[in-house]
Amino acid sequence: MGQAAVTGATMTCPFAAAPVPVPLNVTSNSQVLVDGKPAGTIQDAGAMVNIPSFGMCTTLTNPQVAAATAAALGVLTPQPCVPQTQSWIPTQGKVMVGGKPCLTGDCSVMCMYGGKISIMMPGQAKVMVG
């Protein structure tokens, strides 16, 4: 059982140069509100639409970071983060929002470059789903 994640939920990525949480932007739903905010679904995983940049990326599996690091003779050279995500991995499938599984605070989404993006704070504390 987890808390429903809503617009404004904060997320983190382990490869962000500075571990600053970024806010989730829910676009898959505007009808179902939790604590006055749109409830997220597993489809709210669009890079730069739902999941903004985490600032600077530090993983060498990111081609931009690898190229910049190689050009700097092996000195790790972070580059701007542009998340490459697919879909949130649901932890429960019983609660649906508009026919899609509800996004909860314990869901995660993988970045193509290897980072596991996690929800740090779901944006509300009243509604538990599961």
Key words describing this protein structure:
single chain, 130 residues, mainly beta, 4-stranded antiparallel beta sheet, two-stranded antiparallel ribbon, 1 helix, 7% helix, elongated
Task: Offer a concise description of the structure.
This protein has one domain (1-54, 86-124). The longest helix is centred in the middle third of the chain and has 9 residues, at 63-71.
Number of extended strands: 12
- Give the DSSP E fraction (strand runs of 2 or more residues): 15-25%
Helical amount among residues, as a percent range?
under 10%
The major pleated sheet works out as: 4 strands, antiparallel
- What is the rounded Rg? 16 Å
- Count of domains: 1
Average pLDDT, rounded to a whole number, is 93
Order of helices and strands: EEEEEEHEEEEEE
- Ends: how far apart? 4 Å
What gross morphology would you assign? elongated
| Order of neighbouring strands in the sheet with most strands | 3-2-11-10
What is the structural class? mainly beta
Overview of this structure, please?
By secondary structure, the protein is mostly beta strands. It has one domain. It has one helix and twelve strands; from the N terminus they run E-E-E-E-E-E-H-E-E-E-E-E-E. The protein has one helix at residues 63-71; strands at 2-3, 10-12, 22-23, 33-34, 37-38, 56-57, 79-80, 96-97, 100-101, 108-110, 116-121, 128-129. The strands form five sheets. The chain has a four-stranded antiparallel beta sheet with strand order 3-2-11-10, with no helix packed on it. The radius of gyration is 16 Å and the shape is elongated. The model has no long low-confidence stretch (mean pLDDT 93).
